[in-house]
Amino acid sequence: TLACATESVRFLLEMCQTLRSKIEHFHSSSTRAMFDNAEKVTHQLREFMYTTWTKQTIPTSIVLDAMKSTKWDPRELPETFSPYVTIVTNVLFAANESMRLEAPPHVHTLLWKHLVERVMLCLLDSYGTIKKCTNNGRAQMSLDLATLQRSIDQKVPGAGVANCNGAIVSNMFIKAFYYDSADDFIAWLETPNQNMWGLSLRHVLSLIGCDKSPLSKLKRKQKAELKNKVLSSWSSFVNEQMESIDNKPPPPPPPRPNGV
Questions:
Q1: Orientation angle between helical segments 105-127 and 60-67, nearest 10 degrees
Q2: Which of 66, 114, 115, 183 could anchor a disulfide with 50, C-beta 3.0 to 4.6 Å?
Q3: Phi and psi of 74, rounded to 5°?
């Protein structure tokens, strides 16, 4: 119901957009601003509604609980994926089947994308809570993430949903673990035009504080200096984003499926 209501608002805007040229012919000064604002608001409404729904459907606790028994400091390299991957996959697919019965096809497509994105971000948040992890543990994470992506692609072939932004960010988080130099870590974090690689501050700090990681071998003073550099860099990044956010034009609406 929530999704249908959201898409109804979106549909009404698209109908108005179809008539936009005729409407602006009579009221050009006022309607131009109205259409621009409506585009921005409906996009924000859609994102808010679907993000809220997916958070309620798949809370982070599901992944955290499934991951509790996993050891991230094994002596040997992983031979197979962790059991929690099966649990998370089953939860995702069950939510998808329930949604398929209730939502129209084009709404289901949108919600499926948001569900996958949500699962990947839950995975990222869960990885960020791990206190002790070795190189072998990170290799296990890589294998688990790849297995989850493969299962998603097999569930909906050709959609390419598994390689969503959340999966890319999660993979980047795993790779960042291997930095053993404070200077290299900061240089990576501040890579131009990457927006901190989509990570939150807590994710970045968890990489520094993780026991048995390459960065954990830094001396206490070096680690404190690195943390201060991260906090300073993050503060500058947030200030830049806040300055530009009001002037950024709204993103274009995603295309609707053919025949809808």
A1: 50
A2: 114
A3: -70, 155
CA trace torsion 144, 149, 150, 154 (10° rounding): 140
In the three-class reduction of DSSP (H, G, I as helix; E, B as strand; rest coil), residue 211 is classed as: strand
How far is it, in rounded angstroms, from Cα 87 to Cα 84?
A: 5
Q: What are the angstrom distances between the C-alpha of 115 and each of 97, 120, 187, 193, 255?
A: 12, 9, 33, 27, 19
Between CA 223 and CA 140 the distance in angstroms is 26
Tell me: the pLDDT tens digits for 17-60? Answer: 555 555 555 555 555 565 566 666 666 767 777 788 888 889 99
236 φ/ψ sector (left φ>0, alpha ψ -120 to 50, else beta): alpha
User: Which tokens in the block code for residue 224?
Assistant: 């404190």
Q: Are 153 and 159 within 8 A, CB to CB?
A: yes
Alpha carbons 118 and 76: distance in angstroms, whole number? 31
Q: Which residues contact 168 (CB under 8 A, 6 or more apart)?
A: 198
Q: How buried is 161 (Cβ within 10 angstroms: 0-12 exposed, 13-18 middle, 19+ buried)?
A: buried
Cα dist from 158 to 181, 253, 259, whole Å: 40, 22, 19
User: Which runs of consecutive H residues, i.e. helices, occur in 58-82?
Assistant: 60-67
For the record, the structure tokens of 252 come out as 């274009």
Identify the residue whose tokens are 């296990």.
140
pLDDT digits (tens, 9 = 90+) for 201-227: 999 999 999 999 999 999 999 999 999
Phi, psi values for residue 211, rounded to 5°: -70, 145
